[in-house]
Design a protein that fits this description.
Shape of chain A: elongated
Number of strands of chain A: 19
Oligomer: homotrimer
Number of helices of chain A: 7
Chain lengths: ~375, ~375, ~375
């Protein structure tokens, strides 16, 4: 007896149990449910599988290396600096070819500054004075250029003057620049070498054509159709593609984002870089106070007597920020199963909703309720 | 006949089929299931929809541009360097206003180094010698300052000396600094201009007030309530908000993280920057050997004879690392459906668990099993 | 009556309703479904819970700070530069110890350049000329070194010459380098200090041993088993672990990625850094034109008369890019529930598939259909 019981148990283990359904011959709810089913299958096939490629395992941990190199030369002529030749070693800051780089398009040099005493710039609010008492000796001028000596320098007794300071003299005379000095910066070219790896799939690629023709990379220019693997861009073209003229930003400076997107479908072997350009410092077309980009840097010298003097450069220019992102996908049975199950779970939600309609919203609901719930009374 | 069969088939296609349930008049399991349902609905509404905003499509691929500018000036007086004025062009490294920047708070200058022969620093273990044989000519001193000349320089024959090296002489005399030299670095201000874009929604914003009042950004200071769009911070305030005194890190240096978070709900038009500050080089409050941040940089000069000499600066200071992250969300019907279905899937798990209780854990389980599984015997 | 009705309603609220199943005594489908169930439970336990740790809440927003410091010294001897000593302050660019750093292994100096007139380099295609008309005065030489003066410099009337330019003269004589000059760069060591924080869990850690033994970090070398918390690496070891010899990249330069991975299981208190090294500028082992890494930088001087002159350095070297990524996980009841429900949803998909087999693919399907769908006729 026990044996046959166990045997029965054992066999019933392999009996397939399937939910019992009752058929509600209600066309409205039936059509509603079928429509919902159609929608879900459409969603699974169209959205999850075709658009989102839910059958693929993806790797978003892209490893990327960016190297940049600029070419072009410009000559400027100013009263302060004389005739000056600017090569990439001068106008690219920092010069080491990073993914974030600044290209000088305008500058103002204050040469031969020495440590000493002179009047603070009248533009510094905290340096204004009417009296020596306003310039407390040793006090630093807030947002200014040095420490107060204790003297107030005025034209005459009734006017407002500025404190004398100890600092690098003469003080920089900043004026709003009128026009860019590196006039042909627009024609400089930037070579962007990007190398990516998707470690999960052991896949790596570069955005540069693997060629043995040495002269190709000297002469080519990027073109989406003709030269997609020649990553050399004219600066003027970059700003144009970002929706701006180079002239909009060469006087006061600006900031441009260069996005390189790698959206790789390794099943198809389809993995190409796409370039997007966007201006990063302006919203819409309203120019505001906060637009522009400049900073100061210095070159230090020593004279024969060992005294230090320096040239202070206020440089305006365009900052390029190269950002690489991407993902790679390849078929995976686990991803397929999860995507499928996730979609099918939606069917349950639809059945739940149709049940509510059937049992509570239509006239014969009470009858269906009794049939659906066996033993409810 | 075939027609009527097909017609039957066709109509039965639109019959709605709904699962048949049996009602188990067992209050314990019933209450258990209702509680579970309540929990799931609470979870869906409270967690998924209100807290996690599951009805929104999100964009986490934030594009960000950070520009920084420091203001403030300091004067130092040391025997090696004399009276020196430090402006942002000197104490910010690199000077180009990047998102990662270093502010000098302390330094040690070794001026007028020339290439030549001198004794290696006694601090370099590998440079110690008792004999000329310890200083093999041409060998580089590991972690030292130059190449050995072959001579061992000792006070007398019995003492331990250091090898003579060819290098930049005199060798830097490093001592543990006692106090910071840029004493008012705490009062320097940093202006952080951050511009973000969410490409999926075409939404962009800046953390700087769009004002026509030129003087606003000269005078304002950040204040969460009063001036949330004035991104100008005193360095001392930043370290204070990170939980440290500026004096904890101005002598030996340190590292501060400035996080800007944009958590944008575009449905409500609610998109504001929030600032978080954290010290990045210390855990808890235990100071260890590894704390501090310093590096060396040089300035090269040439004398009238064309010979090179240089100033070596060992600078200590605070590194600021500005990190921007964020996400934007906006209503999407697909996201709503997925979140809903995911939540409802939980109901199935609850029913599965209650079934187990009903069929196997309570006394009348056998009876329910027979009713639930039709035709099991 | 109404009271008893309501009471009935109220009690039926707590009746547990469970789906009615019909038992199909079909062993094939039964075994199929059981196998599927086994697969799903295996998937949930093995993949979701053990491999993916689905019971944990994770924090992927790792906050990281990287500081680097190099040690080592090298002496070079060239006709242009003479005997030169290179310390970290010279060969690390930029010197401030960032996560992206460049180590000079080879260089070519063009000393004493002055602004003036000289012949363009014959390597610049755009500077070639047969006639003064080819050198339009004031025109910039594309990818060249200056602006044309209007003269064509030729050996004799029939040969091709180069335009005279106004630029920094003499022009750099670039030749393909034959061998590296900083021969012992391989033995330089890099100290990588990484500090991470997982803000969600308030957990922070460093990759440096917290020791009071000052000499430990002077002498130790990284070793996965013996010294996992001594983050000091020989450059040669780094390239070797990336699968390349240092000699493969010291002449022309290269790019190495150093990945630090923190995969933390905070439940077990298991949180250690792991280091991975990969070459970022080469795919497979084919060397192409695009390999190598070099850039130019300058040092400016002024002579007694105030005239500027400069040294132009073309430096070749290895760029190290330190990338930190990681995640931390800790037990969370919500994550457990979601993972469980997601896995169980798969069961529904399996039942759906088995139903199709039972009802439409096996012989007795019609009979099962009638039993499953009550009232279908």
């Amino acid at each position: 007896m026990a044996g046959s019981f166990c045997k029965g148990r054992f066999f019933s283990l392999f009996d397939y149990k399937t939910e019992k359904y009752i058929v509600a011959k209600n066309k409205k709810v039936g059509v509603l449910y079928r429509l919902f089913q159609l929608f879900v299958f459409g969603y699974i096939i169209g959205w999850v599988f075709i658009s989102k490629k839910g059958y693929q395992e993806t790797d978003e941990a892209i490893q990327s290396s960016v190297i940049t190199k600029l070419k072009g030369v410009s000559i400027t002529n100013t009263t302060e600096s004389g005739l000056l030749v600017w090569g990439p070693e001068d106008y690219v800051i920092p010069p080491q070819g990073e993914a974030v780089l600044f290209v000088v398009t305008n500058f103002f040099e204050t040469p031969n500054q020495k440590l000493g005493y002179c009047a603070e710039s009248p533009k510094v609010l905290d340096g204004h004075c009417r009296d020596d008492k306003d310039c407390k000796k040793g006090k630093m001028v807030v947002a200014g250029h040095g420490g107060m000596s204790g003297r107030c320098l005025r034209k005459d007794e009734n006017s407002t003057g500025t404190c004398e300071i100890y600092g690098w003299c003469p003080i920089e005379k900043t004026n709003r620049p009128q026009r860019p000095l590196l006039t042909n910066a627009e024609n400089f070219t930037i070579y962007i070498k990007n190398f990516i790896k998707f470690p999960k799939f052991g896949f790596s690629k570069s955005n540069v054509l693997q060629t043995t023709d040495e002269s190709y990379l000297r002469k080519c220019r990027y073109n989406e159709e003709l030269h997609p693997y020649c990553p050399i861009f004219r600066l003027g073209d970059i700003t144009r593609r970002a929706g701006f003229k180079f002239q909009d930003m060469d006087t006061f400076g600006g900031s441009i984002g260069i996005m390189i997107e790698w959206d790789c479908d390794l099943d198809k072997g389809d993995c190409h870089p796409r370039y997007y350009f966007t201006r990063l410092d302006i919203s819409g077309c309203n120019k505001t106070l906060t637009t522009g980009f400049n900073f100061r840097h210095t070159r230090y010298f020593k004279n024969a007597a060992g005294e230090s003097y320096r040239s202070l450069f206020k440089v305006y220019g365009v900052r390029f920020n190269i950002m690489v992102y991407g993902k790679a996908g390849a078929f995976s049975i686990v991803s397929t199963a999860i995507s499928l199950a996730g979609g099918l779970a939606l069917l349950g939600a639809g059945a739940f909703f149709c049940d509510l309609v059937l049992l509570y919203l239509i006239k014969k609901g009470e009858a269906y309720r009794e049939r659906k719930f066996e033993g409810s009374r």
